[in-house]
Design brief:
Shape: globular
Strand content: 5-15%
Structural class: alpha+beta
Distance between the termini: 29 Å
CATH topology of the largest domain: Cytochrome Bc1 Complex, Chain D, domain 2
Number of domains: 2
Number of strands: 6
CATH architecture of the largest domain: Orthogonal Bundle
Radius of gyration: 19 Å
Length: about 200
């Protein structure tokens, strides 16, 4: 039994909850590290990787207009290969409007309801998994920053030329937001990267 599995088993039996702090940084690894050589080879080859089917579906959904607003993801975000580069590496992230962390799939649904004025996609649905895979592919191989290294950009409060207060984050958004610089979250895993599966 691997040491990490023993910690999970012991804490489950004793009723305690495991924390990332119990596993030394040097011992934290992606699940990719534990795969057989053949499975790694399949995942490394985009022509043999079954996850690429979801990526292709996600690319088509990215361009499809949805909801009463009649907008596609591309209408707001443009070319995902540019605008979504690194996005998946910073999720889950704290969402100030909800007062809690959201994952990438929930962030996609927030865009659907607010920007496209469409219904949220059910979690684990083919469409939501495809969009998440497509966005995730744009961050493939990028490291997920450890908690202490996650960038934070505090809101800058200033007075605009018309005398009204303006809230701007240093990322340039019209209001202080979590999208430019999501707040660090306690369960962020250091020394991991976006899966090679997508």
């Amino acid at each position: 039994m691997r040491p990490a599995a023993a910690v999970v088993l012991a804490t489950a039996v004793l009723g305690a909850s495991p924390t990332a702090g119990e596993i030394p940084l040097a011992d934290r690894k992606s699940g990719y590290e534990f795969m057989a050589r053949e499975t790694r080879a399949m995942q490394d080859d985009d022509t043999a990787n079954p996850g690429m089917l979801w990526v292709l579906d996600g690319e088509a959904l990215w361009k499809r207009k949805e909801g009463s607003a009649g907008k596609s993801c591309a209408d707001c975000h443009g070319d995902a290969r540019v605008s979504m580069k690194g996005v998946a590496a910073r999720y889950p992230a704290f969402n100030a409007a909800r007062g809690r962390p959201v994952d990438l799939e929930e962030r996609i649904n927030i865009c659907r309801t607010q920007q496209q004025q469409s219904t949220p996609l059910p979690f684990e649905s083919k469409e939501l998994l495809a969009l998440a895979a497509y966005v995730g592919q744009q961050s493939r191989g990028m490291p997920q920053a450890p908690l202490s290294r996650r960038a934070t950009r505090p809101a800058i409060r200033s007075i605009a030329s018309n005398g009204k207060r303006s809230d701007r984050c240093s990322g340039g958004c019209a209001t202080a937001c979590s999208e430019c610089a999501p707040s660090p979250i306690p369960w962020a895993r250091p020394n991991t990267s976006i899966s090679n599966f997508i």
